[in-house]
Structures are given as structure tokens and as C-alpha cells.
Batch of 3 targets.
Target 1
Amino acid sequence: MKETPQVGYTYDLLENKPIVEDTPMEGPQVEFAGFNEVNATQRDAMDKIVSNHLKRLSSRCQRIETIRVTMKGVHGHNQKKVELHGKLVENGKNYTSEVVHHDLLVGLDLALRKLEHAIAK
């Protein structure tokens, strides 16, 4: 049975500053950028979403080097949406996804699903 991949942060989500760790993390490195307004509850939900997708991605990929998710706010016509860009590097090959959605967590899930579909092709 495969071990569940660990979700690691290279940025502090609340402070939006790099985290220095003494011990190397096992599994793929997950990076979040632009998530400085995310609260603890959303961060916990994000961890669960990313962990679930990492399980599926690690079964399809030989070696995931990094996964990076970048968030940018989109404002217009009294609607607040988020734009999420996903990037996965596997054995030097880049896969990307882009999603615009009004819900951060649904958008994150969709961006990671697009990465899964890109790898499956």
C-alpha cells in the first residue's frame, strides 16, 4: 500500500513569506503563492483537497517534482472571483492549468483536476 504524500508549503499562507525548514520533506513539494488572505479554515480544507489529488496524481506519475498553485483575485461587475494557475513538474515535463471561479476551494479542486487530465492525455 502506498503512503499518503505529505503536503508541504514553501510559503507561509498567512504571512506570504518563505518558510525555512531544516529537514527535507518526503514526496512532492507543494507551493502556494498569492494566498495571503486565506484563513485557517480554508487552509485546512485546501490541505485536504491537495492531499486527495496528490494520491491520484502519484498513482499516475512516476516522479512529481513540484506542484505550484498561484491565486490572483479578479474583480468586476460586483463579483469577486479568484483566478488559479496550477503547474505540475514531472520528470522535467511541465503541465499547467488555469481556472477562474467564485469559490476558492472549488476553483482549487478544478485546477488540480485539470492537471490530472493533462497528465492522462
Note: The longest strand covers residues 64-76.
Target 2
Amino acid sequence: MKNISHSPTVGRIRLKPNRVKPIRLVWLALPLVLLGLATGLCGCASVGHNFNNTAVQNLELGQMQSSEYRSVFGEKPAATSTTSTADGTFEVARYTYAYANLGSAKGRTLILEFKDGKLNAFEYLSSFDEDHKAIPFDQATRITNRVSTKSEVVNILGKPTGKALCPTTLDDYKGKCDKCVEVWSWQSMSSISTFGAAYGGARPTIQNVFIGFDKDGIVSEVTTGAVNSK
């Protein structure tokens, strides 16, 4: 297997670990890496460092410090950045790992955001089989604005794959902060065929549900969708 985690180029995508401003749209960041890996494949290959993804399930907003994430997920995030705004100082780190062989390309990515040193948001997306859990996207219609509570949402959809407190700099969440004080997300991505990608075939499909909550923990917004990365 060819490991190209330190190579600056994958297909037509240029990677500069630790020096690139993180992509703040999780559904865009991972498919770009997968497609670049799949279309340029001539054997087995990997991109990035296979970080400690099992720790994602333990993340709770406000609990982790920005000084701690490297010891938990790994010393080599793919990219980091710091932005100062009127709302505070936001630090963002992205971990990305992708693997491809002659049959398929799979990947996982984690985006962490810290506001003034505390975990303010995170997003996790993966197409690896061991990460896949059935998310009942069709059940989102059971969730009612201004009625459903956080516990009721979890009972319907299961544990979210991402959360954010408002304000946030992460693009998947910040547009929803005008109606919410907290946003949760459920996202799932398919793996892709390396043969299909090389010849312009199928692209990874991402399904998602975003649910916003008001200050009392009651649902204030529900959005659902699917993205086909072309």
C-alpha cells in the first residue's frame, strides 16, 4: 500500500498539513479528498493520519480545552486556524483520513472548533463501515418545531454526529444561529467506487439533518437534505 499522507499532491488536490486554513464545510472537505484519491489511484493508497476517531463519541460541548485535543485525537491535524472576532477567539482544527484500493475509497473527517479555549462545535463524517450507524433520516418528520425537546430528538434520531453552540465560525452551523442558540447535526456519507470516480461515475452522497434549539432546549428549526458531490 502506498501511503501518501505527507505528499503535497493527491490527484489534483494540493494538501499542506498544518498550514492550510481548514475547510469549514464538513460535507465538502471529505469528498474532495476522496475524489482526488480515487481518480489518481494506481493501487492502494491513503491520505492523512488515521486519528483516534473512537473518541468522537465522548465529545461534549464546553468540556474539552483547546490544549487537550491533540493528546486525544493525535498530534498531526490536517489543518488548523485561529480567528478573532467580536464574539471571541475561535480555534479550528481538522483531522482527515482517507483510504482507497482498486475497489473503493473511504474516509473520515473531524472538525473541532474552540471558542476562547473551550470546545464550541464539532462535526464528524465518515464512510468507513465500522463508523456507520443507521440514522433514520425519514423519521425527522416526527420532530415538531416549538414542541420537541432534546431528549425526544435523540430518541428519534439517535446521538448526533455534530453539535455547535452559537455563535460559531463553522459554515454548516453559523447560518442557523439567527434562530437558534445550539445546533445539532446528523450526517452520513456513502463510500465511492474508485473505478466509477476515475471514469466520471458515481460520487459520494451525503444525507444530513440539522436541528436548532432555543435557550430552553426546544426545537426551533429542522432542515434536511442530501448532497451529491460532483
Note: The chain has one domain: 2-228.
Target 3
Amino acid sequence: MGNNEKVPQAPTGERLLPGDGNEKASEGATEEASEGATSGEARAPTAQDTPEQKGLPDDSCPCPHWGYVLEGRVTFRFADRDEVFEAGDAFYLPPGHIPVVQAGTAYVQFSPSEDLRAVSEAMARNMQAMQTA
């Protein structure tokens, strides 16, 4: 991201960084809200975007999310389908999805705090293991 590029702001003031294709793993920020958590993410695509979700039920995200794509395109893979969302799309994701995010994508999502905390902890362990491997 260049020095003159503006960083989109989520409604809570959380900074969202669009992916530029150089990310090695998920970049995100989470801010607790009274009944849930707000999470902004940007990630580069990979051929298989699942190693960080290993060990979660069905190796997919068990947390529901509600969100909005600010820019770019994101695909969420389910066992029986793919759902694709582009800039300007609002979405709901039930449990059981795997995100595949194109470079240049920024989105904001809202998730139940406890569910998101458990997923974030598992993903952090997996990313740490990938870095030390």
C-alpha cells in the first residue's frame, strides 16, 4: 500500500487493509463490541487456503459471519457449493465455510465474540506452526 492510499474505515473505526498479493497469511484486526466482534480481514489467494483452519470442525470455519465487501472479491467454499461476493455485496455465512480471498480485497465482518475467539485461537496456533515448520 502506497503512502498516499487511503485506508478504508469500518464503522467502529477499525482499520482495514486491502491485500496487495504479498500477504503470507491472514491479516486482520478484531474489536470487541457489546454483543459480538467486528473483524476486518485482507488476504492473498493461495491454491489451497485451508492450512490455517486445520483442526477446526471439518477443517472449516464453525463461526457464522455477517459482512460487507468494501473492495475486491472473496469466495467462501462450502462442502456443497461456493458463494462469491464482490465489492458492494453484503453477506451472511453459516458455519462450515473456507475463505478464498483475492488480492486487493477488503471486507468487514461481524461475528459472535466467543465463536470468533475460538476460531482465532486455532488459526493463530496453525499459523505459528506453519512459520516454525
Note: Residues 1-27, 44-48 have pLDDT under 50 and may be disordered.
